[in-house]
Structure formats: C-alpha cells, structure tokens
Design goal:
A two-stranded antiparallel sheet has the order 1-2. It has 382 residues and is an all-alpha fold. Helix 3 runs antiparallel to helix 7, helix 4 packs antiparallel against helix 15 and helix 12 crosses helix 15.
Length: 382
C-alpha cells in the first residue's frame, strides 16, 4: 500500500511560513523586532561580529592605561587618606583645632569634615611638593592597572561568551553576567595582588621619607627590593597580604558589571523601539546612543563603590602591614575591620571616599568607553 506525501509537504510549507512570519528575538536584549520594517531588514543584513578573545585583553589594557593616567592625582590622594600615617596626621590636626574625633560627631558633620579635609590635602600636595607629586606612583600604578584591567576584561568578555554559548543557548542573561563577573574578579585579584601590594608600600614609603626630610630613611630602594624584603620578612604569604579583602572586593566588580550590563540592555531595547517605530533619530536619541554606555559605566561604578567601599580601606591597611608592639597590627580581615571600628570609628572605614569617588566614577566611564571603542575597531563587541 502506498501513501501520498503531498499532505506532509503542504504541512511543512505552512509551518515554514508561520516561522517566517514570527518576529525575531534579540540575543542581547530579548526584545521582539518586526521584520517588515526596512530599517530592521537593513540591520539584519549587516554581518555579525566575530568573537576575538585577544581583543578583550587589548581593549581592557588600553582602557585601564588611559583612565589611570588621567585620574592619577586622585589615586595618590586616596591612598594617603587610607593610610595610618596620614590618618595620624589628620587626628593631630583635629586635636590642635579642638575638633572631637569623628566617632563623637554626627553623620552629617563627620561627612562634611571629611569632605573639607580631603580638598585641603589635595591642594596642599602641589603647594608643598609640587605638581609632579600628584603623579607619584603612576609608573607602578600603570604596572598594576594595565595587566589587571587586561585580565579582568578579557576574562569577563570571553567568560560571558563561553557561559552563554554552553549553558544558555547562546543568549545573555543576568545570571550569565554575574557568573562571568565573579570569575573575572577572582582571577584578577589572585593574579595581581603582589603588584598592588608593592605599589601601595612604595607609594607610602616615599611619602613618609619626604615628610621626614630625608630620602635616606626610605625602607625600599626599588620594586624588586620591596619584593625581596617582603619575602624575607613575611614569606611568600606576605605578597598576598590583603588578598582576602581583594576577594571581598569581587562583590564590587560583580555589582558594577551587572549594573553596566543592565544599562546596556536598556539602551538596546530603546534602540530597538526606535528602529521599529520607523522615525528618524533626534539629536537627543543620538546623544543617548553616544553617551549612554559611558553614563551606564559611571553610574554603575558609583553605586557599587558606595556599597562596598570599606573593603578598600581594609585592603590598604593590610597591605601596609604596620607594626604594633613588635607584632603585626592587622592579622586578618575581620580583625582589621573590628580594630579600625573600635579605634577610629566608622568614619575611618570611609577614609578617602571623596577622592575615591571623584576618581573611580570618571575613571570607569573613560575605561569602559575606551574598551567598547577598541572592540569596535577590532571588529568585535563586548
């Protein structure tokens, strides 16, 4: 007995016609776009970006170098405000002026005092030490920033693609962004902690020597000498002092990446609605398209830094490794946190917050903007 195949062929044609009539779904934004619009057809006709793992490494390194150079003065100020040495100077100045400790002041008055002292120190640096002092430590800072950002952006960008391709049918999702960000943060912190430890100690050592009026009192002669002395006095673990605080800081980078990706998805949905409407972009639309990602990067960093800032102070103190009665003053993450809280009050956990925020917000905008720009030049995307 034979059966006709014509009905099956008809059903297949009808199914294909139904699939062709369905609107397309974007991998990045998850939105539906009608295909009958000529603007959408032109977008669909454009070639897709080719994954280039090396491009993320290059773009991240260039973005980090650009942002670190432009915001170096505020990085110097932040490091000094976070250190024990400058905190003791600030305390002595307060006592001389009859100002009580921040722990005895209200939150508003304490915050205003911190803001005022921050700008007093910033303006005094160039008066006492010259303008070049605002760029102290830039070389070691670039030595840390460039590989750190290259590793972080490369690990995140490639990790996001690998996770989405293998575990989410090639689609991006918030949990994909979070997993990629956590992985990137852990890898970056582990790989670059010794670099940041040396950079922090050299910067503070030079500042102490200049305040003493004699460069012969410097403890470290060079970066290599700092590594030798640290290894000799503290062992291999000494190079990873503050690593636990750096791991705690992964929460900041994860939150920043997550918020940045949410901002990009919002901008993507907005662009899809604009294209689907068929109207010509206005000046405002072009401004949003040009500055939206930069604004998303800056606002994401602002919120993430405010929430997680105390780990920055704890990490700096642990890397500084001060002695008290011949023993290490800070022996661990929790102990360091409780010691600062008891001795100096909660305000000290936000020491250097003002210059930190003034630095990291524009720094993030510059860095992410450069990152996206370089990726476009390389023919790929984030």
């Amino acid at each position: 007995m034979t059966y006709s195949t014509q009905p099956n062929a008809v059903h297949a044609q009808e199914a294909e016609a139904r699939r062709a009539s369905l609107p397309l779904q974007s991998r990045e934004i998850g939105g539906l776009a009608p295909t009958d619009k000529p603007e959408v057809k032109s977008l669909l006709a454009q070639p897709s970006f080719t994954p280039k793992p090396w491009a993320h490494f290059l773009a991240g390194g260039l973005g980090g170098m650009t942002s670190a150079t432009l915001t170096s003065p505020l990085d110097v100020l932040k490091t000094r405000l976070q250190s024990d040495f400058y905190q003791s100077q600030i305390s002595a100045s307060r006592q001389a002026r009859g100002i009580p400790p921040p722990a005895q002041l209200g939150y508003l008055r304490s915050g205003l005092l911190h803001f005022t002292e921050t700008f007093q120190i910033l303006f005094s640096i160039h008066k006492v030490e010259g303008w070049r002092a605002l760029f102290k430590g830039l070389g070691p800072n670039l030595t840390g920033v460039v590989p750190a950002r290259a590793i972080n952006f490369s690990t995140y960008g490639n990790g996001k693609r690998i996770i989405s391709d293998n575990f989410n049918d090639g689609k991006e999702a918030p949990w994909v962004h979070i997993c990629a960000a956590v992985n990137a943060g852990l890898v970056t912190a582990t790989a670059t902690n010794p670099i940041w430890l040396v950079k922090t100690r050299l910067q503070l050592d030079k500042s102490r020597a200049e305040k003493a009026g004699s460069m012969s009192t410097r403890q470290y002669r060079s970066s290599l000498d700092c590594v030798r002395q640290t290894f000799r006095a503290e062992g291999f673990k000494g190079l990873y002092r503050g690593l636990s605080a750096s791991y705690l800081g992964v929460t900041e980078s994860t939150l920043q990446w997550f918020l940045y990706e949410q901002g990009k998805m919002y901008l993507g949905r907005r662009e899809a609605r604009l294209v689907a409407s068929g109207r010509d972009p206005t000046t405002w639309d072009q401004a949003v398209d040009w500055g939206g990602k930069v604004g998303a990067a800056g606002s994401a960093k602002f919120f993430a830094a405010i929430v997680t800032y105390p780990h920055e102070v704890i990490r700096t103190r642990m890397r500084q490794a001060p002695l008290q009665d011949g023993r290490w003053k800070y022996t661990g993450l929790v102990q360091c946190f409780s010691t600062i809280w008891k001795e100096e009050g909660m305000a000290s956990l936000y020491g250097g917050l003002t210059p930190h925020m003034l630095r990291v917000v524009p720094s993030a905008a510059i860095m992410f903007g450069m990152y996206e720009f370089v990726l476009r030049l390389c023919g790929t995307r984030a």
